[in-house]
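pasting for ref
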Amino acid sequence: MTEENARLLVIDDDPGVVDYLLEMLRQQGYSVTGCTQTGQALEAIEKEPFDLVVSDVVMPGMRGLELMAAIHRKRPEQLVLLITAFGSIDLAIQSMRAGACDFLTKPFRIEELYAAVTRAFEDRQMRRTAVKIGESGGKNPDESTFITRSPCMLQLINLATRAAGVNSTVLLTGESGTGKSAVARWIHDHSPNRSGPFIAVNCAALPHSLVESELFGVRKGAFTDASKDRPGLFLQADSGTLFLDEIAELPLEIQPKLLQALETGKIRALGDTREIRLNVRLIAATHQPLAQRVNDKTFRADLYHRLNVINLEVPSLRERKEDIDELVNVLLHRICRRLGKQESVNISMEVLRWFRAYHWPGNVRELANTLERAIVLAEHDTLLLEDLAQASKLPPSEGDFLESAMQQGWTLANIERAYIRHVLEATGGNKIQAARILGLDRSTLYRKLG
């Protein structure tokens, strides 16, 4: 399909709007179908594929967001462009999160619609290119490229790319290990400041007493050991991006100064009387519920709202399991290269099935750590379930799993049943092999399966 012969579906309860858009889009060479009822539109989508759906948001019977959800249930990768006379930033963000490829507010110039349609096809081609990089199986994929075919991850990349074009503060949320730092880097690399520095710091790793000087810098003589001026991270990130990971760990007494820097665009080093104006894009990230921290009085409400201008949630690995095979492939090459292995290690189908079945509470980080431990401990070129069983005795991901189990209120029996079920799924139901991995005799396994 080329853009010139693309098939479009226009949906609006106003027949006049439908007729006008049909005429204008056909003049651009598109093949266009129009519908004035949502039920009629769903029937059309079920009968034949469309390259792009252009839909009003406010319609009788079914609102545009509900219609889009119904469309995506039938065709998960369907491009949908939403238009509305009741535009707002909140509705635009809500629409993009729900899966819209773009959002236009009426009245709009027809050139804006043409541009949005072209942009939708260009964005889809960009995303397909990113997927193809992963599918190529190359040994040196760009680590800043997302390897995904997951709809929720493609949606996040789309939102992150659009967020990169404006200078607003971005708050990245999601579980530990999902790749929030990679998303922050993506936003920087696609921003107008991409040629500037990208400075990343984990707030939890900064000594409490040094947070202010690390962020804002120190003037000579500010305290006993300050023998010379030292620039802070804000100054180092001038004309670029400052990424503050684990922002929830920022000490309460430093939060007003960060808020002031964000609101004024100026900083003042420790011991200095002068303010310096900077051009810094701030991206913050946390795996903790900041709104709850605000309620607990451990995080300032005004800073939270200032950070939360654009909120992007990074999906867990459980929500993008279709990416596991390719992630394993890419991570294997990276790990083997870092460990100095001349030849890549292979993965047995039993291990791959186990990876697909496991719930990954530690997300991509846990997957990478599990692979690395198994590669280091393996005595052959193909990873087997026995290698994973040996690697899993090491503790790095144990805390994440136990924390997740505790939050869900699991009993010891729940945990045992879940692990037995995962091992059985990974072994394709082979009870003899499962019993060996679990360290049980077959009769005990049968009894526990009861």
